[in-house]
Amino acid sequence: MSAIGNGGTRALPARERSFARGPTVLSAAAFNRLRAVLFVLALVPLARLFVLGFTDRLGANPVEFVMRSLGTWTLVMLCLTLSITPLRWLTGWPWLVRLRRMIGLFCFFYVGLHFTTYIWLDQWFDAASILKDIAKRPYITAGFAAFLLLIPLAATSTNAMVKRIGGRNWQRLHRLVYVIAGLAILHYFWHKAGKNDFSQVSIYAVIVAGLLGARLVHWMRNRRR
Amino acid sequence: MLIRRPSNIRPSEITPPHVWHRRREFVQAALAAGLVGAMARGRAAAPAGTKLATRPGSYSTMEKPTPFEQVTNYCNFYEFGTDKEDPSRTAPNSLHPRPWKVAIEGEIRKPGTFDIDDLMQLAPLEERVYRLRCVEAWSAVVPWVGFSFAELIKKIEPTGNAKFVEFTTLADRKQMPGLSSGVLDWPYTEGLRLDEAMHPLTLLTFGLYGEVLPNQNGAPVRVVIPWKYGFKSAKSLVKIRFTDKQPLNSWQKAAPQEYGFYSNVNPTVDHPRWSQATERRLGEDGLFNKRRPTQMFNGYAEQVAQLYAGMDLKKFY
Q: What ipTM was reported for this prediction?
C-alpha cells in the first residue's frame, strides 16, 4: 500500500477498524481547521523561547538552553511525523497522512534553528572549530549527518517534486527518515553518555523504537498475507 | 617600589559599593548570631541564608561575581537530580545540614569525628572570590566563604604515609532523591594529592556570598579547588580520608576515558566530546556573546603550575 495520497479506499481489517472512534472522512473545511490549529501549536515552542528571551528567563546559560530546547522539539516533531502512519493503521483515519508533510517540515524547521544556534550563537561561525567538532565529536557527527540527510527530504516535500521523481522513488528516498531517527537518537544518546544520564534519551529511544517496530510488525504481517 | 600582583588585590578594593556596604549587616548579623549561639552553648542551627562573619581573604579575583540567583540555581549536584535546576528545587527542603558530622580518618595522628560547628571554628572564615570552571565549558565567579584546607591538615597531623586525600559526599536516599538513579556509583567520592590539598588555594568552604552555603551548593561543608574542573570540588562532605593510594574519584570510575584524577582546567586538552578551549560565563554571556577563552589552570597557573612541573598534562588529564 502507498504511504502517500490519502489511501481512503482501502478496506480495513476488522482488528484495525475496531480502534476507530473518530471520522474516517473529514470535510475539507474541518481538515483545514485542524491543520491550522496544529500549525499554530507547532510554533508554540519557538514563541516560548522568544518570550523567555525577551523577559530574561533563559537561565544562567541561555545559549545552551535555546540549543537544547530546539533539539528536543526537533525530536518531538520527528516522533510525531513517524507516528502518523501507525496512528492511521490504528484508527483507520486516512486523512491523518495529509498532516504528515507539515509536521515533517516543522521537524526540519526546528533542526534548522538548532543547527543555526550551534554554528552562530555557540560557535560564532568559527569554521575550523565547527569542522573539528564534526570530525572529532561523535555526537556532533551523528547530529550533523541526521541534519544533512533531512535536507533532501525537505527539498522533495512539494507535490511538484513528488510528481517529478515519481511516487515509488519518493517513497524510497523518504525511507531515509528511519536512518535519520536512528542518528537523532544516537546524537542525543552520545551527548548524554559521558554523564551516564539516559533518563530522557531512553524515553525518546523507546518511542522511536516503538514507531519503527510498528512498521516492522505491519510489514511482516502484510508479507504473510 | 612595591608592585602588587593583580591576584593579591583585596576584594574590598573591587567589590561594588552596595555589596561592600552590606558587610556591616553581615558583621552585625553574625554578632547577633554569635550572642544567640553563645546562649545556646554554641550550637545554634545555621540554616541557609544565615550570615557569616568573614574577613577578605587573599587570592580573590577582580572579576565580577556571578549573581547569587544563578550561582544557587544552576547547579550540578546529581544527588538531587541531573537537571541544573533540580538541586535548587529539591535540596532546600530535603537536605538537613544540621546536625552534621564529618569523619576525618586514615593516615593521620588525630583521627576523629568533627561536629560541623566545631569544624567551622578551626580557623577564621575568609571571603575568597574564585573563578569556577565546569568541565561542561561554562564558568562562574563565586565569593566563597571558608578557610584553607591546609588549616585542617595542620590540626589533624597527617602521618608520613598520607599521600592523598579522599572526600566523600553524603549518600542518604531519604535526603537525596537523585540517589535512586544509577547515574553514578554512590556515594560520590573525589580526591586530591596531598600537596594539592595543602595548597593555600584549596578552600574548605562553608558559605557563599557571605551566607551559610545553600543546600544545593553543597551545605554544610564542601571543598573548592579553583584550578580544577568543578566536579573535583566535592559537596556536602561526610568523610575526609587521608590515604597512601590515589583514590578513584566517581567520574573517573564512571567514564575513565573522559575524566581523570587530576582534571586540571586546561584549554589545550579537550574533553573527548567537546573543546575545553573556551567557556561561557554564567549570567554575563547572553545569547549574543562569543565564548571567552579558558585560561590554563583556570587563571591560577601562577600559583599552582609548579605542582605539576615535569608532568605530561595530556596523559594525566
A: 0.70
